[in-house]
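HUMAN: Spend a minute on the protein record below and explain its fold to me.
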Amino acid sequence: MLNDSKKYLQYKELKTNLGGKIMLSNFDYYKPDNLQDAVAYLDKNPDTIILAGGTDLMLDLRSNKLDVKNLLDIKGIPETNKLTYTPGEGLFIGASIPVNAISEDQEIRDKYPALVHATDALGSYQIRNRATLAGNIANASPGADTSAPLLVYEAKVHIASSEGTRVVTIEDFFTGLKQTTVKDNEIVIGVSIDDVKPEEKSIYLRKSRIKGHDLCNVGLALRLTEDKKVYIAIGAVQPVPVRLTELEESLASKELNEDLGPWIQEEIKKYISPRKGSVRSSAEYRYHIAGVLAKRGLLSLIDKGAN
């Protein structure tokens, strides 16, 4: 009988011959059932990787992009499993809540349509059964689908450590390309969004290279409040998802009507800076698509607001 090391080498050789990959990291896996134990583990092990949905993490492990020493599974922590909507207060989405739980909640669909448009577009149905909202933003990809809707809803991110819990705005959460404000000894436990008025309208539009499940080349969210204030946020056109506050201010001085369609289609291009040389799409294409989506989204909200 082969000993363990020979079994491992034989398995590695077999997988290599088949063109496959194996997980080379030898890591410590820990799944606490409370927040106190989780943050204590982080204090002792600052090089820990957090596991919530794990849809990206598993791919990185399989392709050997990560050398993980400690893996902290947060799905057993009660605070991360909360999904609550309270009238007059708003919505809380725990870090372990799968995206499909958001998409399939009728109250969320009615109150926060832009968010649901984004969660519906995130990967395949099977992926959405595992992927989480917190994981989507914690990766800090410029094109993360849920980022733009969270920006127009002025969401807040709840972050815990042994020193307590702090709350940061979604705008302050992203600090750079693939970077966030979360420290090595901290865990994102959830995202909150204030309640919205019944008269509010919102929409999320995206464009990807192909139809179906693909990363977006441009993702745009718009929100129209009951007092006719327009919020606009966009992803995949700068190192971080951004809310276009200067464009919002320009829009505030104008009457909301169909004439704004061509105007915003050109105006939005002044406030974005797509990366040149991207293998997924050219900067010129992203400029064009940003304008198309801005026009389409704004006219849609104006039409809904008039009815």
User: Anything to note?
Assistant: Residues 1-19 have pLDDT under 50 and may be disordered. The first helix runs from residue 4 to 17. The chain has 13 helices and 14 strands. Residues 85 and 91 are 4 Å apart (CA to CA).
